[in-house]
Design goal:
Layout (H helix, E strand, L loop, with lengths): L1 H30 L18 H8 L12 E4 L5 H12 L3 E6 L2 H13 L3 E6 L5 H14 L5 E4 L15 H29 L2 E6 L12 H21 L4 E8 L5 H15 L7 H16 L10 H12 L10 E4 L7 H4 L4
Parallel strand pairs: 1-2, 1-4, 2-3, 4-5, 5-6, 6-7
Length: 342
């Protein structure tokens, strides 16, 4: 009887140790994952605009030398481009919003102007040379020569086996992510040269920085951007023009959220709109799953990229040109974990 009681006592001790260990591991893991940004979910009923929230937070770095300059941010009606436009406006830069959707462009213009900034919008397709040239003329007539050019317009692509990618799709993705950059810079650089100064910041991606399961067409286009950046920096430096690029990875933005919910709806066989609580929880779960892949255990935010882009555009980076700055939480250090980010 004593032997049975002794064994039972030892069993209980082991059980308590096991439970304590599991609880400790769960808490430790949770503490290493940053919370999902509230503005990214449907949790924030604040009627204030995003730029007013940023202004009140006083979290945006101020670069005094940027004030009064003219900036064009292509692809700035949403996502990283929109956040960069907000950061510029807070730095008292005259900002030109560009996109393909008139309503989205005007919404961003109104947001900036209502907060006391200076902005106007132009709807233009950056793969169309005529539209780019028309945009340049309109900007120079209204604001003056563009001194800060953020070449951010692009488009994503879903991974497919290479034999399933047709020629038209391949060319479309390269046009969106590479040719558009070439054309935009081609038409805006001459005015910068005449002024003897200018800064160009290009958008690349971690998809072009290391092997992963990203789409062939998209990753190939993005891999070309760092070399294009280096060549531009080499050849335009004597004209007083600096050129750098940013390469983000796994950004928690509208695209990530929409993709996550779309995939989950397919998995669950849902056709109707998800309740906010369910959609938020699904996004949080995916956010945490992706965040675990990185040395800094969270996904990136649009503001991470915007802050880096403004630094590169400012005089604080006056001795920096030709680099591609990885904004990826250490993702390219962990090739096997990185993946496509979604």
């Amino acid at each position: 009887m004593k032997k049975i009681l002794k064994n039972s006592f030892l069993l209980n001790i082991l059980l308590y140790i096991l439970v304590f260990t599991l609880a400790f591991c769960v808490l430790a893991e949770a503490s290493n994952i940053s919370p999902v940004p509230s503005n990214f979910l449907n949790l924030d009923n604040n009627s204030k605009s995003r730029i007013k929230i940023l202004l009140e937070s006083k979290s945006v770095a101020i670069f005094p030398d940027l004030a009064g300059k003219v900036a064009l941010v292509t692809g700035s009606s949403r996502g990283i481009g929109a956040e960069t436009a907000r950061f510029l406006a807070i730095n008292k830069v005259k900002v030109v919003i560009n996109g393909k959707n008139l309503e989205a462009v005007q919404k961003m213009v109104n947001e900036i102007n209502d907060a006391g900034g200076k902005a106007f919008g132009i709807v233009a397709d950056c793969t169309n040379p005529d539209q780019i040239e028309k945009m340049r003329i309109e900007i120079e007539e209204k604001f003056g020569v563009v001194e800060l050019l953020f070449v951010f317009a692009g488009g994503s692509s879903k991974p497919k086996p290479i034999e399933d990618i047709d020629k038209n799709r391949w060319e479309e993705i390269l046009n969106l992510n590479l040719t558009s950059k070439f054309l935009t810079i081609k038409y805006f650089v001459p005015s910068m040269k005449r002024n003897g100064r200018g800064v160009i910041v290009l958008m690349s991606s971690s998809a072009g920085r290391a092997p992963s399961d990203c789409a062939y067409d998209y990753s190939t286009a993005q891999a070309a951007v760092p070399m294009f950046t280096k060549n531009l920096a080499q050849q335009l430096g004597s004209d007083g023009i600096r050129v750098n690029a940013v390469a983000p990875c796994s950004i928690a933005n509208e695209t990530f959220k929409a993709h996550t919910l779309s995939e989950k709806k397919k998995d669950l066989g849902l056709v109707q709109v998800m309740p906010p609580d369910l959609s938020n929880q699904l996004v949080i779960n995916k956010y945490n799953e992706v965040g675990k892949r990185y040395a800094i255990s969270r996904m990136g935010e649009s503001k991470d990229v915007a802050a880096a882009a403004l630094f590169l555009a400012s005089n604080s980076a006056s001795w920096i040109t030709g680099i591609t700055l990885d904004i990826d939480g250490g993702g390219t250090l962990q090739l096997k974990k990185m993946g496509s980010g979604i």
